[in-house]
Amino acid sequence: MSGSLRVVVADDQALVRTGFRMILTAAGIEVVAEAVDGAEAVDAVRRTGPDVVLMDVRMPRMDGLEATRRILGGPGGPGGAPRVIILTTFDLDQYVYAALSAGASGFLLKDVSPEQLVAAVRLVRAGDALLAPTITRRLIERYANRDGRTASLHRDLSGLTPREVEVLRLLARGLSNAELAAELQLSDATVKTHIARILSKLQLRDRAQAIVAAYETGLVTPGAR
């Protein structure tokens, strides 16, 4: 993907915003706006149309979860809907699963290294997987349907081929592309094609959303093997 990479940083801590801005700027990534709460983040996205939003979960006035819902559920800014990376202090923050369900592309701990931060922003902008699948799965298994309410995603898997259903099931179990290829005796390119078709048919943004969909449609269940 060509062109500059444009980011909005939303966090109520000035030191966090400043640190992330310095790291991203040093890597040639443009920070087009900063926000101290979710409401400012929504406004900044609409004004600047960034590629990626780094979104803290816990902020005053409007938290990162509600801001993510509004950003990804609304018309977006000049550049269209960005990809959202959730920032959290804890690796299993209770809000992160809900943020993934709302459309976020993954999450990062605030103590992430500069190299990991830059790599994550670039990966998400390119539509690639942000997290190791096993980390995403561990998060989802902890929080999927934990309160017994109806799942928030109601997707019809009937449009998938048997092979695509198999790929989605294994994807949700935490297998990487290389592991999927070995398990199904397929080439890496074929696995990527299957995943792309799954995302297209289910109207999902990325791999993280595919894993969420697999759990919330009941294709796989937490703790099952």
From TrEMBL:
InterPro entries: CheY-like_superfamily (IPR011006), NreC/VraR/RcsB-like_REC (IPR058245), Sig_transdc_resp-reg_receiver (IPR001789), Tscrpt_reg_LuxR_C (IPR000792), WalR-like (IPR039420). It holds the Pfam family Response_reg. The modification 4-aspartylphosphate is found at residue 56. One of its GO terms (biological process) is regulation of DNA-templated transcription. Keywords: DNA-binding, Phosphoprotein, Transcription, Transcription regulation. The keyword Transcription regulation applies. Residues 153-218 form the HTH luxR-type domain. SMART domains: HTH_LUXR, REC. The keyword DNA-binding applies. One of its GO terms (molecular function) is DNA binding. SUPFAM superfamilies: CheY-like. Residues 6-125 form the Response regulatory domain. PROSITE patterns: HTH_LUXR_2, RESPONSE_REGULATORY. PANTHER family: TRANSCRIPTIONAL REGULATORY PROTEIN NARL-RELATED (PTHR43214:SF24), TWO-COMPONENT RESPONSE REGULATOR (PTHR43214). This is Response regulator transcription factor. It comes from Dactylosporangium aurantiacum.
